[in-house]
Amino acid sequence: MSMLHKIALTFIKSIGPVTAKNLLAYCGSAENIFSASKKQLLQIPGVGEKTIEAIRGTDALTRAQQELDFVEKHGIDVLFFSDEKYPRRLKNCHDSPILLYAKGTADLNHKRIISIVGTRNATAYGKNLCKELCEILAPYNVLIVSGLAYGIDVATHKECLANNIPTVGVLGHGLDRLYPKIHIATSQQMVLNGGLLTEFPILTNPDRPNFPQRNRIIAGIADATIVVEASIKGGALITAEIANSYNKDVYAFPGRTTDVFSEGCNFLIKTNRAGLINNAYDLIYYLGWDDEIKEKKKDAQITLQLSLTPNEEKVVNALQNGQLSIDELCIRLNIQQSKLSIVILTLEMQGIIVSLPGKIYKLV
Questions:
Q1: Sign of the C-alpha dihedral computed for residues 48, 9, 3 and 79 taken in this order
Q2: Higher pLDDT, 179 or 290
Q3: Does 299 have pLDDT greater than 80?
Q4: Are the C-beta atoms of 229 and 262 separated by less than 8 Å?
């Protein structure tokens, strides 16, 4: 399909993602939609006179050419619904955008993607939760999505950058501007490890209705949505509600009943709209990531044991179930302490075991 016609399809007034996908399914391509006769279009379920008038009487192709010139000049990726690079998790959502504009290095089909959302009026409690989340999740090869707004969003992006986690900001406007402007420096860093994503073309202002619309991308692109802090009427609750409608996992941190910006989280948990998490380890458990890490460690240990001496292997096997003192190892393995000390020292030097106070040892 012609990129010009793909972009033009998004500029036809009164045609949203659902109708656009319907037109594509019947016409076969974006070009065919613009060249189809009135008779052909009327045969498509849900297409009437007004839709045909919108297709025929629009300056969509002219506007699309302006957009195409901009994205080519600024190195922006245009991801059409049928493209391989289009985020597959989002594609499964019925109202997903027909087209996305992306800038940066992020793989939007990353193995693990979570979204973190919350209030624009983040407290020290919420910011600290963002910090702890990112620090603990850093080794788990995760991509984190948020909305680059004030508060929890930008705190999340900054903590991702500090912990070398790729992070994507979903915007409520085109890529010819950034709102709020105070986050420009952060967004520039994100493009180097993550990126920016939007369904909105250039010349789109960051108007209020755009943000609930962009929230469906934040919810749909991830495996799970985490609400850190939110008031009862916050935009984060809209994102959580959308995620639930997509049958996505939603988790929330509880807060004190007197805290305004925990009221939304407590409501989500109380009404079974979100699972309760106290820390990142709860999230890792619910998503099953810890089991995968344990399997990798187990495989690594099996490989490692192939190069150990018989006595070294005995010590490693004995420590599989927990830490032991040198006296306990002597008794269990029936090895003299003088010989065992040499074995233990060798294993320590290889970084396989570590010494604790009281001559107690455990696997690294």
A1: negative
A2: 179
A3: no
A4: yes
SS3 303: helix
Mean pLDDT, range 261-269, rounded to an integer: 96
Question: Using one digit for the tens of pLDDT, what is the confidence trace for 192-207?
Answer: 999 999 999 999 999 9
Report the distance separating Cα 148 and Cα 177, nearest Å.
13
> Which tokens hold the place of 285?
């458990």
Taking 70 as the threshold, does the pLDDT of residue 96 lie above it?
yes
Q: Are strands 143-146 and 113-117 parallel, antiparallel or unpaired?
A: parallel
- Classify residue 291 as exposed, middle or buried by CB count within 10 Å of its CB (0-12, 13-18, 19+): exposed
Least confident of 112-116, 128-132, 178-182, 325-329: 325-329
**Cα angle for residues 10, 210, 106 (degrees, 5° grid):** 75
Residue 357 confidence (pLDDT): 78
The C-alpha atoms of residue 30 and residue 53 are separated, in whole angstroms, by 16
Pairing verdict, β 99-104 and 324-325 = unpaired
Render the burial of 240-277: b for 16+ CB within 10 Å, e for the rest: bbbbbebebbbbbbbbeeebebbbbbbbbbeeebbbeb
d(CA 186, CA 188): 5
For the whole model, what pTM was predicted? 0.79
Burial class (CB in 10 A: 0-12, 13-18, 19+), 304: middle
Question: What is the structure's pLDDT at 305?
Answer: 55
- Residue position matching structure tokens 């049958």: 247
Is-cis flag, bond preceding 180, omega within 30? yes
Cα-Cα-Cα-Cα torsion 137, 139, 144, 149, nearest 10 degrees, comes to 60
pLDDT (average), residues 87-107: 96
How far CA 364 is from CA of 137, 177, 352, in Å, comes to 19, 48, 6
More confident residue, 222 or 304: 222
Question: Does residue 128 surpass a pLDDT of 90?
Answer: yes
- Selection from 4, 168, 23 nearest residue 80 by Cα: 4
Query: CA 243, CA 246: separation in Å to the nearest integer?
Result: 5
